[in-house]
Amino acid sequence: MLFTLTTFGAIFDNRKYALRLERIRLVLMLLLSQPLILKKSFFLFQAHFNIQILLLLSFISTFCFQPSGKLI
User: Fold this and answer.
1) Is residue 9, in this structure, part of any structural domain at all?
2) Of the four listed, 6, 57, 63, 71, which is most buried by Cβ atoms within 10 Å?
3) Do 25 and 6 form a contact (C-beta atoms < 8 A)?
4) Residue 8: how many CB atoms within 10 A of its CB?
5) Which segments cross the bilayer (predicted)?
6) What DSSP line would sit under 55-71, residue for residue?
7) 3 state SS of 71
8) How far apart are CA 65 and CA 70, in angstroms?
9) What does the alpha-carbon distance between residue 7 and residue 15 come to, in Å, rounded to a whole number?
């Protein structure tokens, strides 16, 4: 947040390094957001995969096993 305020303050003050600070901020935003996006998508995939496994096990236990534990 402070870096953003410094950047916009530099733009309004017409300093020479304002564009450089803005580029650095944008690059950092892109670099730091990618691992977070990958981590979120991995956890969503993992949760979806776990739900599919649970549904498959539920289906198998419902239709393939008798109450005595023997396979039909």
Assistant:
1) yes
2) 6
3) no
4) 14
5) 42-65
6) HHHHHHHHHSB-TTS-B
7) strand
8) 6
9) 10
Query: Which pLDDT score, from 0 to 100, does residue 70 have?
Result: 62
User: Does residue 58 lie in a domain region?
Assistant: no
Residues of the domain holding 16: 2-46
What does the alpha-carbon distance between residue 10 and residue 2 come to, in Å, rounded to a whole number?
12
Q: Is 11:18 a contact under the CB 8 Å cutoff?
A: yes
Is 52 among the domain residues?
Answer: no
Q: Using only the alpha carbons of the chain, give its radius of gyration.
A: 26
Q: In this structure, are residues 58 and 52 in contact, taking their beta carbons and an 8 Å threshold?
A: no
Q: pLDDT means per 10 residues in the chain (72 residues)?
A: 53 62 75 68 74 82 68 57
Domain assignment of residue 25, yes or no: yes
Task: Kindly report the number of other CB atoms within 10 A of residue 7's CB atom.
Answer: 21
Q: Is the backbone of residue 9 left (phi > 0), alpha (psi -120 to 50) or beta?
A: alpha
Overall domain count for the chain: 1
